[in-house]
Specification:
- By secondary structure, this protein is α+β, with helices and mostly antiparallel strands.
- It has three domains: 164 residues, FAD/NAD(P)-binding domain; 110 residues, no CATH class; 101 residues, Protoporphyrinogen oxidase, mitochondrial, domain 2 (Polyamine Oxidase, Chain A, domain 2, Alpha-Beta Complex), CATH 3.90.660.20.
- 31% of the residues lie in helices and 23% in strands.
- The protein is built from 14 helices and 20 strands.
- Strands 1, 2, 10, 11, 12, 13, 19 and 20 form an eight-stranded mixed sheet that branches. A seven-stranded mixed sheet has the order 8-7-15-16-17-14-18, sandwiched between helices. The chain has a three-stranded antiparallel sheet with strand order 5-9-6.
- Helix 1 packs parallel to helix 9 and helix 3 runs antiparallel to helix 4.
- The two termini are 37 Å apart.
């Protein structure tokens, strides 16, 4: 039991990805840390429910193997990331099309050669006169070209241009992306010269899935970062469920550091008050909860808008033949934004002989969501779904903080000496942003406590050098 008189250098409120990343950095620097979590398990919104041998993520945000914080955060070196099949699978006009598979694998130079080679072929579109930019391609020529029916990426030339754009985007420095004018992502896409069919058939559904934003109101700078991670890596899931990321961080903390089932009712620069154990004195407090809970503890903290997310989990003994692919609906013909047979990506998420199909609905929850999702999945996968068993329907109204322009990618984590805040609402609304925010907050705490150097843990030294 946590004694009321227990003292620590730092108390972290919240055992999600941000709070645990901060705690790993703090304890690695020799700072005694206590993490208080109101729930009875770590992970926050990155929670995983266990039902009859299935592991069901509540939100299921997609990770990318290109996220640098997955390598820089102490304690995540042993996290197994299981990748989807390269690129994504698009459903359009009753057919499946693979897209984005070469992004990150082909160089921009080879992709540009492909554009020129296709442009010189008989009846091809004339070669562009301008160089392809990092995210976009030259405006379409004046002479229209009718794309092949059912191809969401347009013509072969359009696809080569897209491959070149993604490859160049993967190698574009972050600073250059952030220097671009900031617009809503939907407006920025329309202004970057790619064919309308490619934008609507690939980039819109892809970015909606990455950002959990079906209308693409997100800042174009955040969309650029998400697209850069997609182009430079592979979409992936953590083995064992989303909560395994938080569990990896928690396991590396000193015994007794994390206290679950402890609800914090107020905070100050040198103490926190809990409903269960009274006042805990400390030298600094770091609030690492979601945005709304943080604002309740820190009056005046801005609460952003949120994107609601609904995840529907089904099981079947006859899985669709899409393999380990992330399937997007380019036609937007139903409530499902993206779906996958996740047990093909991570077999530990389903018992032997059963398949787990997880589908994500963005925006407000539809009425009779399970029926609507089943009908849509039947069209997307091309198989009957009436016999599929529904395992869970998880609706999270405040799943992902909105990042509408103007969006500050590095909101302050230091409120005043002794009081700090972190979370995905302080950076980008992704697991990557949560981790980075936690490390920023820990660095601020260490500086104010005069404990910024030396780092006593070899793994934190390595992480700092990598950063």
């Amino acid at each position: 039991m946590l004694e009321p008189a227990y003292q620590a250098d730092v108390v972290v409120v919240g055992a999600g990805a941000a709070g645990l990343a901060a705690a790993r950095r703090l304890t690695g620097a020799g700072v005694t840390t206590t993490v208080l979590e109101a729930a009875h398990a770590v992970g926050g919104r990155m929670a995983t429910e266990k039902v009859d041998g299935f592991r069901l993520d509540r939100i299921g945000q997609l990770l990318s193997t290109a996220y640098p914080e997955l390598r820089r955060t102490p304690g995540l070196d042993g996290l197994a990331l299981l990748p989807f099949a390269p690129g994504v699978l698009l459903h359009s006009e009753g057919r499946h099309h693979r897209a984005g598979a070469q992004a990150g694998a082909r160089s921009a130079r080879s992709a540009l050669h492909a554009v020129r080679a296709l442009a010189s072929a008989p009846r091809a579109i004339p070669a562009p006169r301008r160089a392809i930019t990092a995210l976009g391609a030259p405006a379409r020529p004046a002479t229209p070209h009718r794309p092949r029916a059912g191809a969401p990426l347009g013509t072969a030339v359009d696809q080569a241009r897209l491959g070149a754009a993604l490859s160049r985007h993967a190698s574009t420095p972050v600073e250059r992306l952030l220097a671009r004018p900031e617009l809503p992502a939907a407006q920025a896409l329309a202004a970057r010269g790619l064919p309308t069919r490619t934008i609507d058939g690939f980039l819109r559904p892809l970015l909606a899935a990455l950002l959990c934003d079906p209308d693409l109101t997100t800042s174009s700078r955040c969309a650029d970062l998400a697209l850069r991670a997609f182009a430079g890596g592979r979409l992936a899931l953590p083995a064992g469920g989303a909560e395994s990321l938080a569990e990896h961080l928690a396991r590396g903390l000193p015994p007794g550091t994390v206290r679950t089932g402890v609800r914090v009712t107020s905070v100050a620069t040198n103490a926190v008050t809990t409903a269960e154990h009274g006042v805990i004195r400390c030298r600094a407090v770091l609030v690492a909860t979601d945005a709304r809970a943080a604002a309740e503890l820190l009056p005046g903290l801005r609460v952003p808008d949120f994107h609601p997310v609904t995840v529907v989990h089904h099981t079947t003994d006859e899985p669709p033949a899409t393999g380990a692919s992330l399937l997007l609906d380019a036609d937007r013909g139903g409530p499902v934004a993206h779906t996958a047979v996740v047990s093909h990506v991570d077999p530990s998420r389903a018992p032997a002989g059963r398949a787990l199909v997880s589908s994500t609905v963005l925006g407000p929850r539809p009425s009779d969501v399970d029926t609507a999702v089943r009908m849509h999945l039947s069209r997307l996968y091309g198989v009957p779904t009436t016999r599929w068993e529904t395992l869970a329907v998880h609706h999270t109204p405040e799943a992902v903080p909105a990042m509408r322009p103007p969006h500050d990618l590095r909101r302050p984590v230091r409120l005043l000496a002794g009081l700090y805040v972190c979370g995905d609402h302080r950076d980008t609304s992704t697991p990557q942003g949560a981790l980075h925010s936690g490390l920023r907050a820990a660095a601020a705490v260490l500086t104010d406590l005069g404990a910024g150097r030396p780092m006593h843990s070899a793994e934190t030294v390595g992480a700092e050098r990598a950063a």
